[in-house]
Every structure is written in C-alpha cells, then in structure tokens.
Amino acid sequence: MPEKTGMAEVNRTSLYYEMMGEGQPLVLIHGGLLDSRMWDGQFKAFSPGYNVIRYDIRGYGKSALPKGKYSHVKDLQGLLKFLGIEQAHIIGLSLGGTIAIDFALDYPGKVSSLILVSAVPVGLRTLDDELTRETLAIYELARNNNSKEAIARWLDHPVFKTIPLKSRKKIQKMISDNLPSWMLPQDSMIWSSPPAAERLSKIKASTLIIVGEKDVPDILSAADLLENKIGVAIKMSIADAGHHINIEKPRQFNSIVLDFLSYL
Questions:
Q1: Percent helix, percent strand, percent coil in the chain, to nearest 5
Q2: What is the secondary structure of 16-80 as a DSSP string?
Q3: Residue pLDDT tens, the chain, 264 long
Q4: d(CA 30, CA 94)
Q5: DSSP class of 125
Q6: Could you tell me if 119 and 30 are in contact, meaning their C-beta atoms sit under 8 angstroms apart?
Q7: DSSP annotation of 202
Q8: How far from chain centre, in Å, is Cα 232?
Q9: What gap in Å lies between CA 4 and CA 82, rounded to an integer?
Q10: Lesser CB count within 10 Å: N end or C end of the chain?
C-alpha cells in the first residue's frame, strides 16, 4: 500500500509524519528518547484496517528542535488539522501516553478511542526515588559530554533493560540520534492545568491501558490509577514484558490493540 511522508508546518514548527493505509485514522505517539521508528512493528501491521499516522514529536527524529515554550498537545492538534483529520484513535507509549491523556482532556471530540501504553499522567508523584536518581545521573553524564556512557546507562536502565537483544542496536541508535532532544530543558514543555492526574475522570473516550508486568513500580501504579479513574477503561497486563511492550511483545501487543479497536 502507498505510504505518504511529509513535514507539517504547525505552531511555528515542522513535524515529520508518515501515513499508511485506509480507514479510520489511528495515530501513534512515540515515547521519550526515541522517535516514530519505534512503531515499525505496528505501522504496517495496523494499516490494512486503518489510516495509520506516526510522527516525530517536536524535537525528535526528523521534526524541528523546539525554540522556547511549546505544547506537544497543541502540536498534535495542529498535525491533525493539517492532515484534515477530524477524529482519530490515539495510541501513546510512555511520554506519548502522557501527551495522549492531555489531548483527550483538551480535545475530547477529536478522540475516537484512547490506548495508553506504559503511561503516566502529568501531576502523578514519583514514588521510586532510586530510579529518579539514576535517571538524573544519566542526564548529568550527557551534560558533561559523556554521551557514550549516558547511552550505555540508558540501555541498562529498567525502562530499556527488558528490550530483546535483537532490538537493542536499533534502540541504541534511536537514543543516540535523539541525544540533542532528550537533553533539552524539560520546563520548556507546556501541559494543561490543572494537571491531568487530577482530571482523569473527565476522560470520556473508551480507553485501553496496556502495561508490562516487569515495568517499574511507578508505571504499574499509574496503570492502576488510570484504570480506576477513567470512566470507560480496561487494563491489560502483559506477562514477561517491561516498558516498551510494542517492541518486546509485538505480536501480542498488536493482537490486543486490534481486538480492542474491533469492538468499538
């Protein structure tokens, strides 16, 4: 099937996107440190039944680096408007899930359904102090120009450690390619207020929450919160999977997603 690629000029930035397939729009939002290539195992697989759109969020992949304050949520809204899409199923993993949650709150009429993978809403307090210290230490290494060691530490970090060996070189390349992006100041990102963690009950879209049983405690706690607070939500826990479920267990992940969408 034909594949369309392009640059969407929205919100004074350029967002790289790819489209494939026909049917209802289905948007894939990648996680932090990576880019839209992380969806290679889903992009083509979902296209027989859906118009699949994957894109690089601002600052990642082929999209432009941020200049000043910006909103990933408004960028997504701008991308959909640019593509002439009124409503879409939204899938977000990790940071992509955080974006998807805020998008569902800010633009409820544009969300056909919501699929949150290893996701945490803005405003949820971190519980794992040791993990936070390790993450901050990695950023400090990169700021001190020890990028090689920083990337190696990311690959050994709990959110990447469970990725299978066959995929690790690809993940390493994505982390390396996106080094300038994940070193950007985090306070440049604008999120909705009040924070999403306080407003989850306002999400009306049918929601699927997917979490790996081997993910970090903060993600597991967040999945429980999302299931309990979102009105129409179901949670699926995947055995022997960590944070990047779509890469670790692609067949199982794809089957779960497509089964969920088929009932809508």
A1: 45, 20, 35
A2: EEEEE-SSEEEEEEPPTT--GGGGHHHHHHHTTTEEEEEEPPTTSTTSPPP-S-B-HHHHHHHHH
A3: 558 999 999 999 999 999 999 999 999 999 999 999 999 999 999 999 999 999 999 999 999 999 889 999 999 999 999 999 999 999 999 999 999 999 999 999 999 999 999 999 999 987 777 888 898 899 889 888 899 999 999 999 999 999 999 999 999 999 999 988 877 776 789 999 999 999 999 999 999 999 999 999 999 999 999 999 999 999 999 999 999 999 999 999 999 999 999 999
A4: 8
A5: P
A6: no
A7: G
A8: 21
A9: 14
A10: N
Would you say how long the chain is, in residues? 264
237 Cβ partners below 8 Å, 6+ apart?
Answer: 211, 212, 213, 223
Residue 263 makes CB contacts below 8 A (sequence gap 6+) with: none
Starting at the edge strand found earlier in the chain, the sheet holding 13-20 runs 3-10, 13-20, 50-55, 24-29, 88-93, 111-117, 207-212, 233-238
Asked whether 74 and 12 are in contact (CB, 8 A), the reply is no
Q: 3-state DSSP call for residue 189?
A: strand
Contact 73, 97 (CB under 8 A): no
Structural domains of the chain sorted by starting position, each given as residue range(s) with its CATH number in brackets: 3-126+190-262 (3.40.50.1820)
- Regarding pTM above 0.90, the answer is yes
75, 68 in Cβ contact below 8 A? no
**Side chain identity at 162, as an amino acid letter?**
T
